[in-house]
Amino acid sequence: MSGRMRLSAFQLGGLNDFSYLHTNCFELSIYVGCDKYPHESQLPEEWENNRESLIVFMEQVHRGIKGLVRDLHGKGIPNAVISVEGVNHDIRTASDGDYWRLLNPGEYMVTAKAEGFTSSTKNCIVGYDMGATQCDFTLSKTNLARIREIMEKFGKQPVSLPARRLKLWARKRRQRG
């Protein structure tokens, strides 16, 4: 197989699947010849036959999108979910809010969402040039999260709606008599 690579046969439930589904890691098994376990004397020739293809293939990890998900104060939001329309696998941001996502060249609608924050969607274009497209997000807190934050700051807890109705009912009843 001079100068060409062959990807391994699809295997359900292998380590590659686990890495992709449960981490942000995309893992492949690549065999560079017809023999899965070539003799060590064949390795230099296999390397020379496949070196350029392997290097070009490895450079593809720099294609796609990358960025930061931050709050309005510029602080990274950990564990935010990054969804790409048409791709059935979300990823999550790292502890400092950064993320990276392999994508082929094209135009993508990308959404960042995190608990307690309003989600944000933007159009990100991945070009044919090497290098990831920067696609940053700034999320604002939801109104409920902001209210809770303010109330906690002043030592008060939010009143649930049923409790509020009960208080109003009791107040009206007292006023009537």
UniProtKB/TrEMBL annotation:
Pfam families for this protein: CarboxypepD_reg, Peptidase_M14
Gene3D superfamilies per record: Carboxypeptidase-like, regulatory domain, Zn peptidases
SMART domains: Zn_pept (SM00631)
Alphabetical list of InterPro entries matching this protein: CarboxyPept-like_regulatory, Peptidase_M14, Peptidase_M14_domain
One Gene Ontology MF term: zinc ion binding
Coiled-coil intervals: none
Keyword hit for Glycoprotein: yes
Keywords from the UniProt entry: Glycoprotein
PROSITE patterns noted in UniProt: PEPTIDASE_M14
Domain Peptidase M14, first and last residues per copy: 1-61
GO terms (BP aspect): proteolysis
Keyword Manganese in record: no
Recorded family membership: Belongs to the peptidase M14 family.
Protein name: Peptidase M14 domain-containing protein
Protein source organism: Eschrichtius robustus
